[in-house]
Description:
By secondary structure, chain A is mainly beta. Chain A contains no helices and eleven strands.
Amino acid sequence: GAGVSQSPSNKVTEKGKDVELRCDPISGHTALYWYRQSLGQGLEFLIYFQGNSAPDKSGLPSDRFSAERTGGSVSTLTIQRTQQEDSAVYLCASSSIIAGGTWTDTQYFGPGTRLTVL
Amino acid sequence: RKEVEQDPGPFNVPEGATVAFNCTYSNSASQSFFWYRQDCRKEPKLLMSVYSSGNEDGRFTAQLNRASQYISLLIRDSKLSDSATYLCVVARPGGYQKVTFGTGTKLQVIP
């Protein structure tokens, strides 16, 4: 079946511009996560969605970052007035609740969007 | 103290060697544990879950020590294709199962 997809795969932008990154989770997965990974670094949690709501936004680094999810499916991460330190790979992952309401926690990742801010 | 800590490595081992990685976690309420593998410039992928009793999948063995709050991954008979970064992942309750990734341990298997 189809996995998590992200677009664009690469984005080069100029400092100060806004960018939108898109994530299509696996069909039926209710949980969606955004992470970013700078070169040679670990994953940095940004935000978590359960359905269309975001109960945990604690990882968003500044108010320039926002995200939304519609229809319990596609999510968009928006970065306004991009800065050079925003350059990183932005990864999206989805997971689902297995039968009985137990969290499976297994996260399936998309290929990421490599953002370069010049 | 970081919630999940790993030795970044790199671990350089010859083909056929046995190598072990440890990962420590700080929150005793953590409930679920995983090892993910991330190849260079690729997304992380689940390698295996870690169960209290320990579990094995082919050449890979995972162990959990709740008392000392660490998990381990043992790779036997290393292959060149095992070269990757291994991420320790810990999940704990928090309204939802909050998941924290370690920064990873890099393994390089050399011929």
